[in-house]
Amino acid sequence: xxxxxxxxxxxxxxxxxxxxVVQMFDNADFLLRIAVMIGIYIILTLSLNxxxxxAGQFALGHAAFYGIGAYxxxxxxVNYDVSFWLALPAAAIVxxxxxxxxxxxxxxxxxxxxxxxxxxxxxxxRLIFVNWIDLTxxxxxxxxxxAPSLGSYTLGSNMDFYYLVLVVTVISVLIIRRIVQSGxxxxxxxxxxxxxxxxxIGIRPMKYKLLAFTIGALFAGxxxxxxxxxxxxxxxxxxxxxxxxxxxxxxxxxxxxxxxGSILGATILTVAPEALRFISDYRLxxxxxxxxxMMVYKPSGFWGESKxxxxxxxxxxx
Length: 318
What we know:
By secondary structure, the protein is an all-alpha fold. It has one domain. 71% of the residues lie in helices and 3% in strands. It has 13 helices and four strands. It has a two-stranded antiparallel sheet with strand order 1-4. A two-stranded antiparallel ribbon has the order 2-3. Helix 4 runs antiparallel to helix 10 and helix 8 (183-193) packs across helix 10 (205-231). The two termini are 17 Å apart. Residues 308-318 have low confidence and may be disordered. One of its GO terms (molecular function) is branched-chain amino acid transmembrane transporter activity. It is a multi-pass membrane protein. This is Branched-chain amino acid ABC transporter permease. Pfam families: BPD_transp_2 (PF02653). Its main location: membrane.
């Protein structure tokens, strides 16, 4: 408990004071926007890690759930004047439902076959965003998404968005931590290691894999709703298959089946492209090389399962 308090208190102070610290820089709004995206990507990485790291299912279509959450929130808020505080859980529920629908048949697949099917699903969803013009406004996207309000106060600045995303991210981390450290999480790891052995002790692999897929999709929907309201605009370009690969890279880089690893991977791969803009022609090549080297020399990631016994703000890998 002491270790948790020692780390958590300065971390909380740092996160709360960060917007005021960055005001000292000329590009404060840009830095706050990066911080907002770090929070969104942390939720996305954690949600995919439930599927890939804890359930052991190779999924390549996570951007589809991210997009479904974003478009659900955007459509509800723009077309039906629904409050963000209702649109957020609605986006999560709708996305979780789509995750359940897709997961019911595809969780019977394994390895490359599952990856191909989920990748195809991601492309289908993106094409729906592009071509269903009456609903999604096609390639032009949905502009003018209203900012959330708290009573008479409207959250309209990047500082406001930072605190909004911070609160939702912390809540998401705590919920996911609770899930993976519960009996459900332990059973999920058992299924990942050996489905036959799991079934022999009364654990139904299909049930646990489907629940993991649904939960992962649900939290991706939360991230999508946050993206929509903080960007105030959504378009199909934000949810291409490259985004799925990017989220998967965050999982791999940080470490599978690790909450601190997901946080670390999301932070590094959100900040790195911006920090390397001065070599814009080569930054993607450099990032790709770094990931390849990580997979060769440190396949468990920066904070993978080999560090599961070590605590980070009281959070183990499990």
